[in-house]
């Protein structure tokens, strides 16, 4: 027997027989059995999701060391089997044996198929650009010292790993998580709740489902964890809003897959690279997520109100030149074209746009040059006579905080007629004093390494003396031949990396014979750095 809520979802026919109810927009949730009271059913749905998250946590914990790191071949191959099994099997068992429903709870519809996929795909690109824009802006205001960069992720160095990653993002991560949190959690909650309540319900659960990977794989610090959890929950609102208004699971699958794919193809290294402590970086991240995700929700609402709703009623949203385009998309959205034709259209669209993204990334995937800002590189190429250049100096400085075992990488880039010849780095820090007479604080140890143009310095590390400051330095000089080789390959913007690592944070150890805990943990320390750069430049530049 159908529930009252489901019965109310039956829509009225308008014009071209497109259902236009304001609950399901013609695509109701699955379920025929009578529903229990509101909160009892909501707790049942939540219980299944929490069970899945618990199993997922065990999987992440038990395989963390097996995969060595995130993004390896083993990581993705195991994900192909583990993700559908752990995420979806508990839901299917609940549906069949507890709810005693037929089939599965997942809703698939061809309505809004083409427009939904286009909105999801383009929306994912806008989403990432908004995040980069807001993060750079907020981080710069908060004292970040390195401008935004957008570079190829090193994953692309392996073609087979890239193909495997692409498959997993589009055909495993996107479908599995969207079926779980939108087609099951959101839809089933919406059978007993208002839409906004169901959206909140599923979004919070979606964010919490990432806790296992945050703890066992990414090993986030507390401030990073808070930032990431807020980001995941608000991302859930974005995906949930798109699903709620489009009622197309394919739209959110594409957006989710494309969004994750971009994060794997591009490495976003922004102004957080220096000048901000962990707490500041956390608030910058939260502000970024809030602004970017609110804008995405507004965009989807406007598309829903001014494009999808008129089309559901059989009316054009815009006139003039856009009429024929709307008619073409409308035919694909409402079954007037074959599924094969629609599939061909959106596959070609995705391949072309993805190729364009890769081509653009190949052109702009470089860190910003050292100095006050990027300059026009002009024609580039050609032969540079280094003997005609003179030496000049620049200096960078900043500060940060590192937990034990973590590193911060600062990227310095040459530019046309401004080539890096020497880099020297000094890192300084002050250790905490003994907490009282019963304890002796053990020294902290930092290390620094410089690399570039195929060369690197040995890792220099040093502890501070007890109760005082410490410092460690490194210096590298590049041979003229190495610089010339880089310029001969049109790599005038070659990169030098400075890696600062918190090797060991000495604990507060109890002095033998005195009362107190055996030791008090010291998790990390603040540090300052100065970087002196010798450049080869044209005289007067």
Write up what this structure looks like.
The chain has 541 residues and is α+β, with helices and mostly antiparallel strands. 48% of the residues lie in helices and 19% in strands. Strands 6, 9, 10, 11 and 13 form a 5-stranded antiparallel β-sheet that branches. A hairpin with an 8-residue loop joins strand 14 and strand 15 (519-520). The longest helix is centred in the middle third of the chain and has 35 residues, at 278-312. The protein starts with a helix and ends with a strand.
Topology (SSEs and partners):
Blueprint: H1 4-8, E1 13-14, E2 18-19, H2 38-63, H3 73-98, H4 113-141, E3 149-152, H5 159-190, H6 195-208, H7 211-216, H8 222-246, H9 249-265, E4 266-269, H10 278-312, H11 322-333, H12 339-364, E5 390-403, E6 407-413, E7 418-430, E8 439-441, E9 445-452, E10 455-456, E11 460-463, E12 469-477, H13 480-488, E13 495-504, E14 508-510, E15 519-520, E16 524-537
Antiparallel strand pairs: 1-2, 3-4, 5-16, 6-13, 7-12, 7-16, 8-14, 9-10, 9-11, 9-13, 14-15
Helix pairs in contact: 2-3, 2-5, 3-5, 4-9, 4-10, 4-11, 4-12, 5-6, 5-8, 5-9, 6-8, 8-9, 8-10
Number of helices, counting only DSSP H or I runs of 4 residues or more:
13
Beta strand count: 16
In what range is the share of β-strand residues?
Answer: 15-25%
- Structural class call reads alpha+beta
Q: CA-to-CA gap between the ends?
A: 80 Å
Order of helices and strands: HEEHHHEHHHHHEHHHEEEEEEEEHEEEE
Low-confidence stretches at least 5 residues in length (pLDDT < 50)? 1-20, 269-273, 364-382
